[in-house]
UniProtKB/TrEMBL annotation:
Role of this protein: Forms membrane-associated dynamic filaments that are essential for cell shape determination. Acts by regulating cell wall synthesis and cell elongation, and thus cell shape. A feedback loop between cell geometry and MreB localization may maintain elongated cell shape by targeting cell wall growth to regions of negative cell wall curvature.
Superkingdom of the source species: Bacteria
Species per Swiss-Prot/TrEMBL record: Aerophobetes bacterium
CDD domains assigned: ASKHA_NBD_MreB-like
UniProt-recorded name of the protein: Cell shape-determining protein MreB
Segment forming the signal sequence: none
Matches recorded under InterPro entries: ATPase_NBD, MreB, MreB_MamK-like
A Pfam family this chain is assigned to: MreB_Mbl
GO MF term list: ATP binding
Swiss-Prot/TrEMBL keywords: ATP-binding, Cell shape, Cytoplasm, Nucleotide-binding
Main localization (coarse): cytoplasm
Cellular localization per UniProt: Cytoplasm
Length: 347
C-alpha cells in the first residue's frame, strides 16, 4: 500500500511527441528526450496478441515465422492501423509515465502539415484514449523550425526540409505559420527500397529492409566521396537460391539513391517557386535548413545547395528537431496557441 502511495502523482508529465513512421520520440517537460523507440510491433496472426514492441519488434522484421507478423502501424507519416497504433502509443506512454496519476498529461504532438482532418482526428483520439487531458497538434515543419532554434515568430522567411521515414516535407514559415509547403511520400523508406532494388538488379542479391537501412547509414551518400567506402553485404543469391555475400561501394549506393534524392529536390524547388517574393529574399539570405533522419545522408546538403544555388545547412540535432520543438512548445503556451493546428481537446 505504502509503495503505491509513493508511486502516486496527481499530474502526469507534460509530453512532446514525434509520432514517426520509423521512430517515436517523447520529450518530458523538465527532463528532455526520454524515449526513442522504433514504431514497430510484433503480433500473433493466430490471436492478435502483441508479442513485442519497439527495438525487440524491429529485430524481428524479416525473421518471423508465418504465425508472427512484425508491423509498422504508421505509414507515410500517418496512422495506417488505428488499433495497433493505439496499443503501441499506450505502451510508449506507460514507459514514460511510471507513476499512478490522477490527471493525465498534456501532450503536444507533431503531425504532417498536410494531414487531413480524419488523420488529425485519429491522432487526437489515440492520445485521449492513452489518458491525455489536453492534446495539441502542431505541423511537423513548424515544430522542426522551433527545435532548430530558428526565429519562427519574426517576419522572416525560414525554409525547412524535414526528411523522415515515410514522408519528406518542405515548408516556408514566417510569423508562427506555414506560408507554403509541399510534401512527398518519398523519404527514408524509399531510400531503403532503392538499395534493395539496386542489389537485386546489379548483383542478383536479395536483401531485407534492415540490411538496406544498415547500408544507407554506413556508406550512404549522394555523391561519391573522394575516399570511397566499401561494405560487405549478405543476402540470398537469386540465381542459386543460396546465401551469398557481395561487396558494394558508396558510389554504387549514390547511384541507387539518385532517383529518390532527385524527387526530394524537385519538391524543394517546387516550394521555392511558390514562395512570395519578400520571403524569397529572406531565404536567399538565410538559406535552407535540413532536418529528419534523411538529413544525415552524406553530401545531401551540398547536393541540395548545388540544385537550388542557396546555402543549405543541417540542423544541430536533425533526428531530434521535431520532438525538441514540441518540447519547447510545452514551455511556451503563447507560442503554442499561435502555432497549433487543432483546437485543444480536454477530457
Amino acid at each position: 500500500m505504502f509503495k503505491d502511495l509513493f508511486n502516486f502523482r496527481i499530474f502526469g508529465h507534460s509530453l512532446g511527441i514525434d509520432l514517426g513512421t520509423s521512430n517515436t520520440l517523447i520529450y518530458a517537460r523538465g527532463e528532455g528526450v526520454i524515449l526513442r523507440m522504433p514504431s514497430v510491433l510484433a503480433v500473433s496472426r493466430r490471436n492478435g496478441k502483441v508479442l513485442a514492441i519497439g527495438e525487440e519488434a524491429k529485430r524481428m522484421i524479416g525473421k518471423t515465422p508465418q504465425n508472427i507478423l512484425a508491423v509498422r502501424p504508421l505509414q507515410d507519416g500517418v496512422i495506417a492501423d488505428f488499433e495497433i497504433t493505439q496499443t503501441m502509443f499506450k505502451y510508449f506512454i506507460s514507459r514514460v509515465q511510471r507513476h499512478h496519476i490522477l490527471v493525465g498529461p498534456k501532450m503536444v504532438i507533431g503531425v504532417p502539415s498536410r494531414a487531413t482532418e480524419v488523420e488529425k482526428k485519429a491522432v487526437m483520439e489515440i492520445a485521449t484514449e492513452a489518458g491525455a487531458r489536453q492534446v495539441h497538434l502542431v505541423a511537423e515543419p513548424v515544430a522542426a523550425v522551433i527545435g532548430a532554434d530558428l526565429p519562427i515568430s519574426e517576419p522572416l522567411g525560414n525554409m525547412i526540409v524535414d526528411i523522415g521515414g515515410g514522408t519528406s516535407e518542405a515548408a516556408i514559415i514566417s510569423l508562427d505559420g506555414v506560408v507554403t509547403s509541399n510534401s512527398t511520400r518519398i523519404a527514408g523508406d524509399e531510400m531503403d527500397q532503392a538499395i534493395v532494388q539496386y542489389l537485386r538488379e546489379k548483383h542478383n542479391l536479395l536483401i531485407g529492409d534492415q540490411m538496406a537501412e544498415k547500408i544507407k547509414i554506413s556508406i550512404g551518400c549522394v555523391h561519391s566521396p573522394s575516399q570511397e567506402k566499401k561494405m560487405r553485404v549478405r543476402g540470398r543469391d537469386l540465381a542459386t537460391g543460396f546465401p551469398n555475400e557481395v561487396e558494394i561501394s558508396s558510389g554504387e549506393v549514390s547511384e541507387a539513391l539518385s532517383s529518390v534524392v532527385n524527387t526530394i529536390c524537385d519538391m524543394i524547388e517546387a516550394t521555392l517557386e511558390q514562395s512570395p517574393p519578400e520571403l524569397a529574399g529572406d531565404i536567399m539570405e538565410r538559406g535552407i535548413c535540413l532536418t529528419g533522419g534523411g538529413a544525415c545522408l552524406a553530401g545531401l546538403d551540398k547536393y541540395v545547395s548545388k540544385r537550388t544555388k542557396l546555402c543549405v545547412k543541417v540542423a544541430p540535432d536533425p533526428l531530434l528537431s521535431v520532438v525538441l520543438g514540441t518540447g519547447k512548445l510545452l514551455e511556451d503556451q503563447n507560442l503554442l496557441s499561435n502555432v497549433e493546428m487543432t483546437s485543444t481537446l480536454e477530457s
